[in-house]
Specification:
The chain has about 550 residues and is mostly helical. It has helices at about 5-40, 45-55, 55-90, 95-105, 110-120, 125-135, 145-170, 170-180, 185-195, 200-215, 215-220, 230-240, 245-270, 290-315, 335-340, 345-375, 380-390, 395-405, 420-440, 445-455, 460-470, 470-485, 495, 505-515, 515-540; strands at about 40, 45, 90, 285, 320-325, 325-330. Strand 1 and strand 2 form a beta hairpin. It is globular and about 70 Å long.
Length: about 550
């Protein structure tokens, strides 16, 4: 057999192995979920769907979640685009600090922000009491408005991250040409800059929409009767008389259909604005001076300050004295002592084991998919790429339920351990990393690999020693950001965890729901500390002032 044939066989084998992995751990669970939704007692039945659409308190959750996601998406765009514009086009004071603070706003689970806002503006919150003292009443963090506020403050930095990259890709000569034709100021921003960045705006909008729609923690903590789809999925899974796989599966299928429709609408809109630009003359940031400069700085720092306020307050509350759920005067380490008794060490260990394992799986598979799609595109590799993107339109709770339905019975029982949580997180975050890896791979000229092959290097060796290192900056940045999103993931974990597999985010949620607020603050603080360390590693290895998504 020729050397060329052996190389073809190797990459073909890799392709088939990847396809098998996705068939077993993604397609099969989704298939089992569909079967569970339409079969009960061994017979075909649509009773679960009839039950869902017969009760307003069920089907209204679709509209509630959609309304929240649309409002959060719009608010995030309105806040994030000006922020990114000021950051990219002007030399703001303390750019690096502003960038780090902006990232810290989004690098924690949304429900932690919800918990903090309960402490600040709940019925007995510190801001609520301060406002009451001056005669202002009626403000509450609970319900629709509170959910939108918390999610917006958590997700607008994603828009900033996306738009920073888009603004960097604009060629300054285009802006100069527009200005020479009399298109200046706000008019130029609307007609030129917004038009050139529309594909990125739509991509950022979809990401924020999906994150908001799939969020379980924030609505469950501050919804107070305003039920959303992820909360309904979780409650349906538990059932009134024990675990109800049948109804939960039906609701999950509806969730996937809704998000798929949103995804297709975004794809259709994106195709209308599909074009390529290259910044041969990148934009040179101008000095932010005068009243305009003051307003820019005030806007950016005030927005980041408000978004960071809950996290700062949580750290403070982790050192406050509590008696049950009642705040007491003074500071101490008693909450940390109690947290150690409430499986803090186990939670940290489980979080690191699951997160690192999931990250390794994601990176290996994402790099292989990127190479196969870019360098060896065919029907098989394109099928793998398409299948790997399915979790993008699947809320985390749906993935969790699908894995439980598929792997809670023979021939393959995985429930009850860390392995199934690792699989869930790897599946959940795979699309984002594989897209990033593919984008990095497309920027590497094939001539470099061909040069190595012409010098006698085997194709696999050229891939490992040349191609992968050239992708390293994108891989490292993607790895750190993926690691943070894995650590703060809760929607799938809340379906899969037990006392032996508890993680930091689940520990925080469990402590909040049982009223142990001081201990919850400790779990949340430790989670934030881990994310800060990840951010520090990102900045150290990439040496960038911003993030490329």
């Amino acid at each position: 057999m020729s050397v060329k044939k052996r190389r073809l066989d190797f990459w073909s084998a890799v392709s088939w192995v990847l396809l098998l992995i996705f068939l077993v751990f993604l397609v099969y669970p989704v298939g089992r979920l569909l079967i569970e939704a339409v079969y009960t007692g061994g017979q075909f039945s649509t009773d679960a769907f009839q039950k869902f659409f017969s009760k307003p308190n069920y089907y209204n959750t679709i509209f509630n979640s959609t309304k929240i996601a649309v409002c959060v998406m719009a608010a995030s765009l309105l806040l994030g685009i000006p922020f990114a514009y000021f950051y990219s086009f002007y030399q703001l004071k303390g750019r690096k600090i502003l960038f780090v603070l902006c990232l810290l706003c989004t690098m924690s689970a949304p429900f932690i922000g919800a918990y903090a806002w309960i402490l600040l503006m709940g019925n007995s919150g510190i801001l609520t009491q301060m406002l009451k003292s001056i005669g202002i009443t009626g403000l509450s963090i609970y319900g629709f408005g509170g959910i939108v506020l918390v999610q917006t403050l958590k997700l607008f930095p994603l828009v900033v991250i996306y738009m920073n990259g888009a603004f960097r890709d604009i060629d300054n000569s285009l802006l100069e040409a527009a200005e020479s034709m009399g298109c200046k100021g706000v008019d130029r921003f609307k007609r030129v800059i917004m038009a050139l960045t529309m594909p990125t705006i739509l991509a950022a909008a979809l990401l924020v929409f999906m994150r908001s729609f799939a969020d379980f923690g924030t609505p469950v903590l501050i919804g107070r009767g305003y039920s959303t789809f992820p909360v309904l999925i979780y409650n349906s899974y538990l059932g009134e008389n024990g675990t109800d796989y049948h109804f939960a599966a039906a609701v999950s299928v509806i969730a996937v259909l809704v998000t798929a429709v949103i995804f297709l609408i975004q794809r259709f809109a994106s195709n209308r604005f599909k074009f390529t630009i290259s910044a041969l003359h990148p934009i040179a940031p101008k000095e932010a001076t005068g009243l305009k400069g003051i307003l820019m700085h005030l806007y950016c720092y005030l927005l980041v300050g408000v978004a960071l306020l809950p996290q700062i307050y949580i750290v403070n509350m982790s050192f406050r004295n509590y008696r049950n759920a009642v705040l007491q005067p003074g500071y101490s380490l008693v909450n940390y002592q109690k947290a150690l008794e409430k499986m803090l060490v186990r939670s940290i260990g489980n979080t690191l084991v699951v997160s690192v394992s999931a990250l390794v799986i994601i990176l290996v598979i994402a790099i292989l998919i990127a190479y196969l799609v870019v360098r060896r595109s065919n029907v098989l590799t394109n099928t793998i790429d398409t299948v790997s993107m399915l979790p993008y339109i699947m809320p985390g709770s749906v993935i969790g339920i699908a894995l439980v339905v598929a792997f809670s019975r023979k021939p393959l029982v995985l429930t009850g351990g860390l392995l199934i949580m690792t699989i869930a997180l790897a599946i959940r975050r795979m699309p984002f990393t594989s897209r990033s890896a593919t984008a990095s791979m497309m920027k590497i000229p094939i001539s470099i690999e061909e040069a190595a092959l012409s010098l006698g290097a085997p194709k696999l060796e050229a891939f490992v020693k040349i191609t992968v290192p050239m992708m390293s900056s994108g891989i490292i940045s993607g790895a750190v950001l993926s690691f943070v999103s894995i650590i703060t993931e809760m929607s799938s974990g809340v379906i899969l965890y037990n006392n032996s597999t508890i993680t930091l985010t689940i520990g925080t949620y469990s402590s909040i729901t049982t009223g142990i607020y001081g201990v919850a603050a400790v779990f949340a603080t430790v989670t934030m500390l881990v994310t800060v360390i990840c951010l520090a590693l990102y900045l150290k290895f990439t040496k960038l002032e911003d993030v490329r998504m």
